[in-house]
Amino acid sequence: MPFFITTPIYYVNDVPHIGHAYTTIACDILSRFSKLKGDQTFFLTGTDEHGQKVEKAALSKKKDTQDFVDEMSQNFRDLIPYLGCQIDDFIRTTEERHKIATQFLWNKLKDNDEIYLSNYEGWYSIRDEAFYLESELTKTENGLIAPSGAPVEWVKEESYFFKLSKWEDNLIEYYEKNPESILPRSRYNEVLSFIRGGLKDLSISRTTFKWGVEVPETDNHVMYVWIDALCNYITALNYPNTNNQSFKTFWPGIHIVGKDILRFHAVYWPAFLMAAGLEPPKQIFAHGWWTNEGQKISKSIGNIINPYEIIEKYGLDQIRFFLFREVPFGNDGDFSKDAIAQRVNADLSNNYGNLIQRISSFIIKNSDSKVSKPSNYKEIDTKLLQSFDETLVHYLKNMNSFQIDKALKNIFDYLSEVNAYVDSQAPWSLKKTDNQRMIDVLYLVTLLSIKISILLYPVIPSSIDKALNIYNLSIDNLNLNNLINFSPDLINLNIPKPLFPRIEL
Question: Model-level pTM?
Answer without folding.
Answer: 0.94
